[in-house]
Structures are given as structure tokens and as C-alpha cells.
Amino acid sequence: MRLEGKKALIIGAAGQNNMGQSIARRLMQEGAEVCVAGRNKVILEELAKELNGHYALSDITIKSDIETMVDVAVSNLGKIDIAVNATGWGLTKKFLKTNEEEINRMMALQFKGPYFFMQSVISEMRNNGGGSIIQISSGTAVLPTINHTAYA
CA 13 to CA 85: how far, in whole Å? Predict the structure, then answer.
């Protein structure tokens, strides 16, 4: 097991059968102890139980939630070696029809949240000799798709 002894935090694991859950399962299979995070307590509790891991409730668009999530993860894991952001929301709407509320939500989820997530985990990782951050992005960042302007 390549990740034996490593501690991993994965946010974006509270959806039904989503990428964050798959990543958490794979990290656990490779030997990492995991803490899954997101907004759905029921799903997170079930996943944490399945993985013999931990969970933290967190909304990536709220900085204080991110800081609390990192604190909970460190409290349970002891440290963070691997941090994965698998959150996302695919806004599919015509460019001229996208409104300010949707842009604000997209910026909070796709820019501000990841920014503060990385800030928080880097602060923790620096205390423990480093680590790895994995930021999941969309293929639309490099291969534009119709009606995905705000998402990309």
C-alpha cells in the first residue's frame, strides 16, 4: 500500500457516488487514513463509516467552515499529508443569460473556496514538513463547451 501512514482530507465527498467519494475510497485502499468533508452529514457519516475514517461538515464557500474543517481533520488524523478539493458545480447557461447571483456563487465555489482551502491546508502542512494538494478541475478549462462559460 503506497500511502500507508498518510493522512488525507477530501472535500467534495458528500454527493451521491461522486468523484470525491471515489477519490476517498481509492486513497483508503492505498493505505491512507481519510477524513471526508462536505455539506451532507448523513452521506458523510455513512462514507466515513465505510472507510473506517472521519468526516467534517464544511461549505467550501465559507472561510470559517474551511478553517473548522481543517481543525477537525487534524484533530482526528493528527496531521494532513494529502488534501483534495473535489467540489464543483456545473452551471450550464448561455453567457448573456448568466446573472450576478450565479456568477457570485460560481466564484465562491470555484475560486474563493479553493483559495482559502489551499491557504488553510498549506498552513497546516508547513507545520508537518509538507504534503500534497490535489485540486480537481474541469476539462472545460482547456476544452470549452457550449453554455459553460461561467463554469470554465
Answer: 9
Torsion, Cα 129 124 20 152, to 10 degrees, reads: -100
Model confidence over 17-26: pLDDT tens digits?
899 999 999 9
55 is catalytic: no
Closest CA to 147 of 71, 95, 86: 95
Residues whose CB is less than 8 angstroms from the CB of residue 21 and which lie 6 or more positions away in sequence, other chains included:
13, 15, 36, 47
Distance between start and end Cα atoms, the chain:
35
Q: What is the mean pLDDT of residues 92-108?
A: 89
Q: Which amino acid is located at 48 in the chain?
A: A
C-alpha radius of gyration, the chain, whole number: 16
Sheet holding 82-85, edge to edge: 54-57, 33-38, 7-11, 82-85, 132-135
- Amino acid letter at 25? R
For the entire predicted model, the pTM comes to 0.90
CB 28 within 8 A of CB 20: no
Average pLDDT over residues 84-104: 88
Catalytic site residue from 55, 116, 117, 151: 151
